[in-house]
Design a protein that fits this description.
It contains six helices and no strands. By secondary structure, it is mainly α. It has a single domain, classed as de novo design (two linked rop proteins) (Up-down Bundle), CATH 1.20.1440.20. This is LemA family protein.
């Protein structure tokens, strides 16, 4: 075998040995950043909803003065959401807030003059759009995390991920209580 052929074979082997880990590392970094970005998009949409809620609550307060507990529940849920430190705490607080908002919107049904109020209608439309954005952001996050976690566990990326400490990311999951229909009691 000629010397130049041996050198070429050695260069190809080195490129393969070095190239695969570098490619795997770069893919993992890219997928991790996509998941982080998707998580930030959830935060942005949740903040948008949190910013809308006080306006909606104040509009309803003027009509539904006897429904004070719902306003307290909403305030507590917003506070819990803003203090969430990880994705599961955020999901639990988000579900609590969604439940409280569902109860608030059910209360509105008892106040036809409120439903016809232009400010309330505008806020409701904005809130509905925000809820749709939140749902899409959650789906995008879960897709990004699934892609990242799959790549992280696939060969040969699993070797690179363990060497460089790429950790599994949790999916955005609804809390256990989110499957229950919120109760609304107008007798209080």
């Amino acid at each position: 075998m000629r010397k130049s052929t041996k050198i070429a074979i050695i260069v190809v082997i080195i490129l393969i040995v070095v190239g695969i880990p570098i490619s795997s590392y770069n893919n993992l970094v890219s997928l991790e950043q996509t998941a982080n970005s998707a998580s930030s998009n959830i935060d942005t949409q949740l903040q948008r909803r949190s910013d809308l809620i006080p306006n909606l609550v104040n509009t309803v307060k003027g009509y539904a003065t006897q429904e004070k507990s719902i306003f307290t529940d909403i305030a507590n849920a917003r506070s819990r959401l803003s203090g969430a430190t990880n994705i599961q705490d955020q999901a639990d607080a988000d579900n609590q807030l969604s439940s409280s908002l569902s109860r608030l919107l059910a209360i509105v049904e008892n106040y036809p003059e409120l439903k016809s109020n232009q400010n309330f209608r505008d806020l409701s439309v904005q809130l509905e759009g925000t809820e749709n954005r939140i749902a899409i952001a959650r789906q995008d996050y879960n897709t990004a995390v699934t892609n990242y976690n799959t790549k992280r566990r696939s060969f040969p990326s699993n070797i690179v991920s363990s060497l460089f400490g790429f950790q599994e990311k949790p999916l955005y999951k609804a809390s256990e209580g989110s499957k229950e229909v919120p109760s609304v009691d107008f007798t209080k």
